[in-house]
Structure formats: C-alpha cells, structure tokens
Amino acid sequence: MALRRATARTGSEARRPERWLLVFLLVFLIFNRAGVWLQKIGLGRLPGDVRFQLFGREIFLPFASSVLLALVATGITFLV
C-alpha cells in the first residue's frame, strides 16, 4: 500500500508533458507567422531548420533556430 501512494502521480505532475507540448506548439506557430522577419535577421536558414509544403501551405519547423534562441535566452537569464 505504501509503495502505491509514493509512486502515484499528482494531477500537476501528470500534466507536465502536455504543458511542454503546448509550449513547443506555440513556438512553432510563432516562428511560422514571423518567418519573413526572422529570415531578414538570419534565423530560419540554419542547417537544422526544415521547410516543406503540405496541401498548398508552406510549413516551417525551426529546430536549429529554436535551440539557438533557447541558448540566447538562457545566457540572458544567467546574466540578469
């Protein structure tokens, strides 16, 4: 009985993967909408960024740009 209580997840712990999925989805949507502006400053053309067309729409998955922006944000938080 004691083991079951210790290993049971609470409601907030069970929702963590959903939160991260939502965050990544929002980041990809923002990158898709701001793609033209981001290309002007050089993001979106890195080797890990993927572009393809699906049903007449251009889809942009900025894997490398996301990692680069995360590193920049992490560096800024350490400085502040």
Task: List the SSEs and their pairings.
Blueprint: H1 2-7, H2 11-14, H3 16-33, H4 35-40, E1 49-54, E2 57-62, H5 63-79
Antiparallel strand pairs: 1-2
The share of residues in extended strands comes to: 15-25%
Number of strands: 2
Rough outline: globular
Q: Return residue spans where pLDDT drops below 50 for at least 5 consecutive residues.
A: none
The strand order across the widest sheet is 1-2
Secondary-structure element string? HHHHEEH
Q: For the CA atoms, what is the radius of gyration?
A: 18 Å
Number of helices: 5
Sheet having the most strands: 2 strands, antiparallel
Q: What is the averaged pLDDT score? A: 76
Q: What's the end-to-end separation, in Å?
A: 47 Å
The secondary-structure class comes to: alpha+beta
Question: What is the helix content?
Answer: 55-70%
Kindly summarize this structure in a few lines:
The protein has helices at 2-7, 11-14, 16-33, 35-40, 63-79, and strands at 49-54, 57-62. With 80 residues, the protein is α+β, with helices and mostly antiparallel strands.
Question: What does it look like?
Answer:
The chain has a domain at 42-80. It has a two-stranded antiparallel sheet. The protein has 5 helices and 2 strands, in the order H-H-H-H-E-E-H. It has helices spanning 2-7, 11-14, 16-33, 35-40, 63-79, and strands at residues 49-54, 57-62. The chain is globular and about 45 Å long. Strand 1 (49-54) and strand 2 (57-62) form a beta hairpin. The termini are far apart. The protein is α+β, with helices and mostly antiparallel strands and 80 residues long.
